[in-house]
Amino acid sequence: MLVREYWKKSFSQLMKLFEVAVKCRPLTARERGRDIVRVHNDKEVLVLDPDLSKDYLDRIQNRTKERKYTFDYAFGPNSSNLDVYKRSVRSTIAGVVQGLNATIFAYGSTGSGKTYTMVGTRDDPGLMVLSLNTIFDLIEKDNSSDNFQVTCSYLEVYNEVIYDLLEKSSGHLELREDPEQGITVAGLRSIKVNSADRILELLNLGNSRRKTESTEVNETSSRSHAVLEISVTRKQQKEYPNQVIRGKLALVDLAGSERASETNSGGQKLRDGANINRSLLALANCINALGKQQKKGLAYVPKLTRILKDGLSGNSQTIMIATISPADNQYHHTVNTLKYADRAKEIKTHIQESYDSYCNYMRNQFALQTEVSRLRKELAEKESQLNAKPEKAPDDEISWLNTLSQETSENVQERINLQKALIELEETNLRNRKELQHLDDAIAKQQVIENDGAVVQALQARRQVILDNIRDNDELGVGYQKEIEANEQRRCQLQDMIDEAIRNNGNKTYLGILSQYRLLGITNTELQFEMAIRDQIIYSQREAQRNLWNLLMSLGLNEKQIVELGAKQGVTVEDIQMTTPLGLSNTTHTPNMTDERYTSLTRPTFYDQSGAISPCFFPQDGEFSTRYFPVETRKPRAFFREEHHTSYYYVSHGLSPSANQQCCSNQPSSYYGALDQQTRGFHNSFPLKSHHISPYDESGDAWAVANRKEVNMNSYVGMSSTWDPCKGMATNHGGINQGIFGRLPVEESSNKVNSQHSYTKSPIPARPSVPHMLPSHVNSKFKREKF
Ligand SMILES: Nc1ncnc2c1ncn2[C@@H]1O[C@H](COP(=O)(O)OP(=O)(O)OP(=O)(O)O)[C@@H](O)[C@H]1O
To answer: Which positions bind ATP (predicted)?
Structure first.
């Protein structure tokens, strides 16, 4: 398959960029405990309460410690490494041969089976060996006549020091930032491999050099993170002769995720534990920033995160294999691992968000690059003309022009880089501030409700790291700002020189192009920057609006009172959920606030299973649908859009979105795509997978539920005119289609969306907070002039 086609295909599989699999190992011969883990439907993991004495009453009153989670894949104790590989990993490996990056890492507490899963045994080879087998198979079957080279390196990170596991007595290795290759480990041995046969041997050799300790939980517990990197270099012969494509696959066997205190360690081991956890925390942050560029100025980025940067960012595919033990005495570790893996599912949302901005960014970049290369070509032509006719332009003049052209080009490039860095910094800071708010919420919730000292301490430590990052980023931003000012000064000087030369020199065309080139470069950069700032301002204003709502509600006012109070002052107060559809509708849409469901703490927001607010939904009413599809019909349909997203969900009962015609069946249909105001059409839409009539359809009305797996795992989008999905009962919405975006409960048989954590049952404690302001170092020129 051509690389281009592969990319097209892989974009459609974008939502598979991050997947979570859980693998439960069998009880070992030494373990005498009870098996408390059950795997259902290849996706669900049920952890039973280790306390057998809990009775039926405890169970129905939800007092047991039984926990249930759903993942992309779940494997029980009878699954072999090959089973795990075939279902969850194999499809990813094909991408590596086509030049994509992928990271597969095993996460779990000590003794849960990480090394077994990654390395395996002769009878049950692990993911490292199986992946290499596939790579060689694919290369053998490739009929493109391209040349391939496969190399492996194997390193460990122990206490923030890097060692080469393929070297007998490796010293400490250093990380280097290479402008072409990104982050590299200086002096790391990279072995050319021609077949997968040797790899298990090499891995075993490497593993025997890993730092292991006997902890209370595991006799030979790995105290380090081990990274096997397989690099596939493909030299193309036909499509783009001699173009080299590199795909990297990182297979990571992390150190045990248990807390230092849990392994009963002290001294050196305690320090190991701290470093292991620091790396894990950073890895989690890095994964959370998936799809983003490397963020500048983070206070400290641990080695493991830096090493894995390429494989965790951009459009790399990442698979997390969470390993658990079925033993009852491992209950806490098992639940902690599953909770962490469950949280990792949120990463998909980030990917979607960053993909949208990534697409915009790529479009701008492409336009800019095309323009720049056109002008470069013109410049080169003019230069060759000048060289060909030296009598018309003396040598010193040509060299002066060359220098001027070179400096102009550097000045433009520097400006682009600085603006890009500043934008990235702003994005990092926004994310940091958002996380800070979440942490404040979580700390408040812990202090008020659950009062778990250890959790509060961990949250506060994380809070401090974020605060440090914000401070460092602010300082860095001021530095960038100064560099931009210097760049601007140089730009003015260069412009003066060009203007002067145009006035005095006959070679006007050349200088004119140079000037145009410089101007276009700057204009493009500024446009890009302006767009990013605009996005940020819109985002910040929404945040500020939300914060103000929280603030007002924490003072004991409910929404109705706030709206009335505003009306008395002649101020129109918009609902917190309200977001004007960008350029699509001028009418203000406000949900019916007199509805008795919307009392002060019961916002029409859904909460996910951890109690955090799930991505906001954006309801659109029937009027909006009619605007786009004026054909009179009784079939309800609705469009809705998530906040900060430009694409819309279309949900209908038996109506196609494109032709506004009856679908072949009377099933609920749901699509994801873009609305066009001009043509009033729904473009580039694609149907959402496996929509089905669910138990929510009880009302007999059009409550369509679409599995949004491609977009955000486990989230569902739907609509109804007479059905309240939160209460699980029929209700009267006065004929208005209600757009809902939420998560399904674990038990699909329940007929409520998110019944366990619906807004009526778990309100998030009110938190006084101040509106978020733009960081002070945002380019003040844009702030003043444009907004
Ligand atoms: N699927 C499995 N089938 C049989 N035995 C297994 C399986 N998974 C793990 N084991 C056994 O469980 C024990 C612990 O496994 P392993 O060393 O892989 O754990 P680990 O998570 O890497 O631990 P640590 O973090 O302490 O290094 C080993 O004896 C291993 O052989």
So the answer is: 108-115
Q: Closest by alpha carbon to 207, among 246, 155, 149?
A: 155
Q: What is the DSSP letter of 482?
A: H
On whether 126 is known to bind a ligand per the annotation, the reply is no
CA of 108 to the centre of ligand 1 (A): 10
**pLDDT tens figures, 628-679:** 333 334 444 555 554 444 556 566 655 665 544 444 455 556 666 666 545 5
- Is 111 assigned to a binding site? yes
From the alpha carbon of 212, which atom of ligand 1 is closest? Answer: 27
Joined together, the tokens standing for residue 265 give: 């360690």
Is 33 annotated to bind a ligand? Reply is no
CATH code for the part of the protein at 3-345: 3.40.850.10
Ligand 1 center to 268 CA (angstroms): 23
**Complex ipTM tops 0.90:** yes
Low-confidence ranges of the chain (pLDDT < 70): 1-17, 52-64, 179-181, 211-223, 238-242, 257-302, 310-315, 345-402, 417, 420, 424, 448-450, 502-547, 550, 569-787
Structure tokens of 623?
């009027």
What does the pLDDT look like over 430-443, one tens digit per residue?
A: 778 888 888 888 88
d(C-alpha 391, C-alpha 627), whole Å = 69
**Residue 114 annotated as lining a ligand binding site:** yes
Which of 69, 81, 105 has its CA nearest to residue 26?
A: 81
22, 25, 214: which to mutate for ligand 1, most atoms within 8 A of CB? 25
